[in-house]
Amino acid sequence: MTATATPTTPYGLAELEKERGFGGMGTTKARNVPQIDMSDFAARKAEIADQLWDASTEIGFFQLVNHGIPQAQIDEAFAMAERFFDLKEATKAQYPLLKGTNAGWEYKSQVRPSTGTADNKESYQITLPRMEKLWPTGEELSGFKVVMLAFERANWALGMKVLSCFAMKLGFPADFFTDAHDPLQPDYQSTLRLIHYLPMVGAKPEDFTGWRAGAHTDFDCLTLLHQKVGQGGLQLCPGREASGELAWTDVEPKPGVVTCNIGDMLMRWSDDRLQSTLHRVRMPREDEYLGPRYSLPFFCQANKGAMIQGPEKKYQPITAHDYLQQRIAANFAK
Ligand SMILES: O=C(O)CCC(=O)C(=O)O
Ligand SMILES: [Fe+2]
């Protein structure tokens, strides 16, 4: 992938082109997703950074254990997300996703370039500076804002620890990415997303041919994903092996882990050394659990003004704003 390979987009976003044409079923293959122990972080940082680097240059996915976000806080966020999605449609519709903002509620509106069809899900996104008039009221859902603001910040803090390891390995100052994701700036654009994949109980056989989330890579630097045990479906396919028929690996939800993946923004920022890996959420098979699936991803997306360029200057510099806008525009038609 080079900066000049894709003249169809102004910045040569080969990532956009890459995403098209990965919509087929493919095969499956067992692969190891490395687990990385974050305990005693300050003292073990060099060792942790080596492990993060190896996982991210190879498979692009890893699972954090002893990550410091209390399980009770994760459970509380899931419970609150379920209560949000249980609200009446008319209530949720008061807080609509506005195009290009990553804030607010949408229902089956995200069309992936890989599949050309809408993901079978609804979602609510929290991007802090853009939440005016987008929070449900206390009468509608008491406690929602408190729980989500705390959870957003807990995920940010964990994400910044991981990114500080990559900063070290790339030769940037330790807090380089923390400064680039500063939540106190008005151009902060990291996003907490609550996702509800619709239940498939009683669905027609043809409904099972679609996708809960079509194959894609993430736009951001780093994604931290919380899954619920028993609600599987996430699959990955490493880019370096992505030629011919794709072979997909299930990433089972496990207790106590936060599943992480590198996004396109950090791949570019690392001159393609860190791998942004293709993933998707498949439908359950008709003999599997058919209830809803909830997931909570947090996307570390650099502030709008941050200038993205790797230490080797493989690509032209681009602001995080321009970069994200192009990716969002390709996903939300309306
Ligand atoms: O719900 C999941 O497990 C994955 C969601 C995802 O990949 C995304 O929202 O980018
Ligand atoms: Fe994703």
UniProtKB/TrEMBL annotation:
<dbReference type="InterPro" id="IPR026992">
    <property type="entry name" value="DIOX_N"/>
</dbReference>
<keyword id="KW-0479">Metal-binding</keyword>
<comment type="similarity">
    <text>Belongs to the iron/ascorbate-dependent oxidoreductase family.</text>
</comment>
<keyword id="KW-0408">Iron</keyword>
<keyword id="KW-0560">Oxidoreductase</keyword>
<feature type="domain" description="Fe2OG dioxygenase">
    <location>
        <begin position="187"/>
        <end position="302"/>
    </location>
</feature>
<protein>
    <recommendedName>
        <fullName>2-oxoglutarate-dependent ethylene/succinate-forming enzyme</fullName>
        <ecNumber>1.13.12.19</ecNumber>
        <ecNumber>1.14.20.7</ecNumber>
    </recommendedName>
</protein>
<dbReference type="GO" id="GO:0046872">
    <property type="term" value="F:metal ion binding"/>
</dbReference>
<comment type="pathway">
    <text>Alkene biosynthesis; ethylene biosynthesis via 2-oxoglutarate.</text>
</comment>
<dbReference type="InterPro" id="IPR050231">
    <property type="entry name" value="Iron_ascorbate_oxido_reductase"/>
</dbReference>
<keyword id="KW-0266">Ethylene biosynthesis</keyword>
<dbReference type="InterPro" id="IPR027443">
    <property type="entry name" value="IPNS-like_sf"/>
</dbReference>
<dbReference type="InterPro" id="IPR044861">
    <property type="entry name" value="IPNS-like_FE2OG_OXY"/>
</dbReference>
<dbReference type="GO" id="GO:0009693">
    <property type="term" value="P:ethylene biosynthetic process"/>
</dbReference>
<dbReference type="GO" id="GO:0102276">
    <property type="term" value="F:2-oxoglutarate oxygenase/decarboxylase (ethylene-forming) activity"/>
</dbReference>
<dbReference type="InterPro" id="IPR005123">
    <property type="entry name" value="Oxoglu/Fe-dep_dioxygenase_dom"/>
</dbReference>
<dbReference type="Pfam" id="PF03171">
    <property type="entry name" value="2OG-FeII_Oxy"/>
</dbReference>
<dbReference type="Pfam" id="PF14226">
    <property type="entry name" value="DIOX_N"/>
</dbReference>
